[in-house]
Amino acid sequence: MHVTAPTVAACAGIVVFFLVAWLAGESRRKLRIRPIASALLVQVLLTVLLLRVGVARQAFLWLGSGISALRQATLAGTSFVFGYVGGGDPPFVPKAGGNLFVFGLQALPMVIVVSSLSMLFFHWGLLPALVRLTSVGLRRSLRMGGALGVCAAAKAFLGQTEAPLLIRPYLGKLSRSELFSVMTMGMATTSASIMVIYSTILE
């Protein structure tokens, strides 16, 4: 197996991040190695599934297309209400280098839609069932609560604001470490929806 410099740098970066997190921790003596090793193993397995297993890759792309469809539906609604400032076709030819993207009318409505859907799913009992299902595997492998696991899975597709809204009814019940994990996931990752927003701004 040929080891390249980027691979060594990536592994060294993981060690450095763990060291910094341990030094900044409040309870260094209570460090549990098993959840950390389990989390790394889960990441390796997910990487292998997404890169080597066609069914898993297609399922991941299917979930991503669902999020894109939700965003397109939201954009259609904002275009109907606000016209071209909401994402519709402008009645004029934009100048070169011009940008018709309005953050408050094209990006923020997505947050409102996801919040409304999460409350609807919670009312129907779908969200609590998903939390219970997710918690079974995560509690055994990572000792992670189901609500935190749902937020972590959703962060791959949703933004920093929308993903925690999926577990909004559970946010008040999270421990300090779980709440910090939610914040860390939001700051350390970029979702597909945010990438779409960035690409829209650059266009």
Label the overall shape. Answer: globular
Assembly annotation? single chain
How many strand units?
0
Rg for CA atoms: 20 Å
Mean pLDDT: 79
| Number of contiguous helices | 10
How large is the share of residues in beta strands?
Answer: under 5%
Largest sheet: none
User: Spans of 5+ residues with little confidence (pLDDT < 50)?
Assistant: none
Percent helix, as a range, is 55-70%
Total individual domains: 1
N- to C-terminal separation? 42 Å
Taken in chain order, the helices and strands follow as: HHHHHHHHHH
Secondary-structure-derived class? mainly alpha
Could you explain the architecture of this structure?
This protein is mainly α. It has one domain. The chain is built from ten helices and no strands. It has helices at residues 5-23, 33-52, 54-82, 103-106, 108-124, 126-141, 146-154, 162-165, 176-188, 192-202. The protein is globular and about 65 Å long.
